[in-house]
Amino acid sequence: MRSMFTNVCAHMNCVAVAAAVLTSAHAAARGEQILQLWQDSLTTYLPGAASSGQDVWPLHAQRGVNIDGSSRTWSALGWALAGNPLNVSGAESWNSHLKLGDMRVDLGSYAPTEVDLSLPSNGFRWIVGRTYNGVQVDAMSAHRDSDGPQGKNWFQISQPEIVFVNGASDDKDAVYIVYGADRYIEFQRADSTATEYKAKNGAAGVVQYASGSPDTWTYTDQHGNKTVFFGGNTSSGRADWQIWKMTDPAGNVCYVGDATTASTAASSGYNADQTIAVAYDGSTQAGGGGRRYTYTYSTIDSVSRLTQVKAETKASGSWSSPSGLVEVGKVEYAYYQTGDNTDGANGNLKLVTITTPLTDSGVSVVKKKLYRYYQGTYNGSTNPGEPNAMKLVVGYEGYRSYDWDQDSS
Questions:
Q1: 160, 248, 261, 394: least buried by Cβ within 10 Å?
Q2: Which 8-state DSSP code applies to residue 72?
Q3: Which pLDDT tens digit goes with each residue over 105-131?
């Protein structure tokens, strides 16, 4: 009897200890609140300048999440950045009225998410695409037009960037992840000595700073995906505040330049003007290294513009000495320029051409999308739009149909 009683007591004691541990863990979990408001940035976009790589300056109303934690403008890169795990597509029914197609109803702005290349991969895909923002303003609330490599007011999705805000005190420091011309999330420093920055105002996750040559900033979302950005001290500033790599919990990685060494990635993956030169996804390739994405730029009216991104596979060898190269996808960008600016000012993105090779040798599917913009002084009846603002989009099927109507070829 005593032995049984002792065993029962021991068992009960274990249960009590386990219950205490669970209670303690539960209390700790409850203490880590996901949704946290930060009044300093709630109605203000804190950065006092445009992003360094793509020159965009979103409005505070273009935060990528609603303060209830639901998604407002999604990330094509697959980040779990919305803080509401129960319904990231819209926790409140009125959220669905924010947009009508590609139009932001509340801002009266064209706000597309255009994916030009998205090829199957292990883990993250390397997404090549574009967003647009024609309602940017500067620190004095004056209208401005960004002028990055993707064209005025456009942003290349595959090159998200961060903006660091040096606050009035150390605990007011902030990091912004700008993942589109019209979308961002923000993080506040945990305290005056911390290297961690906590997501605020509806976003989820944490950014961790690490000193080095160069420094790195790692964003971990609520699924455990990690995205690493360079800090502001890369060689000659060529990759300052730009993306380096993305890794999922299984270890699959896609990256710019080099997957393991930050300094090598910055020097080999970026051009001198903070534009991506080459990137790789996590697909299975002979010799390793994933598919290669090569970025080509051309100087048009004295400004460097992204004109092509080409995806390739190889049959053997490393990417430093590949054999059997095969093009598996390509997107080309054309811009209005001197001598061709009737329907857009110099630097406006004009035509997007996507080429997808088929299994039949020499046969490809080609899709084209055309853009036209307002020009000249605003007039409510004769010219109801500002320069560089979107006037007309001719979609892929519309362009194909028009082309066929013109010459049946």
A1: 261
A2: S
A3: 999 999 999 999 999 999 999 999 999
